[in-house]
Amino acid sequence: MNVLQVTNTSRGTSEVGRCADTAGPLIVGIGGTMRPGSSTEQAVRAALSAAELAGARTHLLGASALQLPLYVPGETRRTAAARQLINAVQMADGIVIGTPAYHGGISGLVKNALDYIEDLRDAPRPYLHGRAVGCVITARGSQAATTLTSLRAVVHALRGWPTPLGVAVNTEHTAFSPNGTSTDSHISAQLSAMGEQVVEFALSRAVTA
Predict the structure, then answer these.
(1) CA distance 190 to 49
(2) Three-state DSSP class for 48?
């Protein structure tokens, strides 16, 4: 059985296996910025917390875990951090991706990490096939909505299923506490609903598989 360190955002860290019969679906969060306690990472944490309440296990790969060498097609050598990312995505039943909007696009840190999913092209579930993906964008101003469309396009290219609800957070009006709680109740509700949608899709796929 493959084993992954799974961090429940509200309950500490436990070691679990994806194939355990009594375990809930595994939802992996990817994203953040290099600023400690960034709004992006806190928004992903909030979505993962909602996924936990819906019965899932969660694992967060924040900015510190995404400091990877620039992805080079054809290069087969992988750092320990890159192997951790690919292993987590391969085991995931659902994904939550969070990125800041930089000049109308996805951050280089997050996009580079997503490029590494190319390593799963020949996997039994290639790329993000069969996985729901919740998309979260943070930005100061209105560019968050534009970048959300860009992130959804990347998820489609990786064969993932963006959830019906994507969340665009305008950080001019919304902030997050260290535990991931938003000062905007509407944003909090959206992040919770999106996390629940990822779990619902994962559970429905498990039933029909």
Answers:
(1) 13
(2) helix
- The Cα–Cα gap between 55 and 102 comes to 34
pLDDT tens-digit profile, the chain (209 residues): 233 554 444 333 333 333 333 589 999 999 999 887 799 999 999 999 999 999 999 999 999 999 999 999 999 999 999 999 999 999 999 999 999 999 889 999 999 999 999 999 999 999 999 999 999 999 987 778 889 999 999 999 999 999 999 999 988 888 887 666 788 899 999 999 999 999 999 999 876 65
Are 115 and 144 a contacting pair, CB within 8 Å?
A: no
Q: Structure tokens of 187?
A: 């944003």
Strands 57-61, 105-106: pairing is unpaired
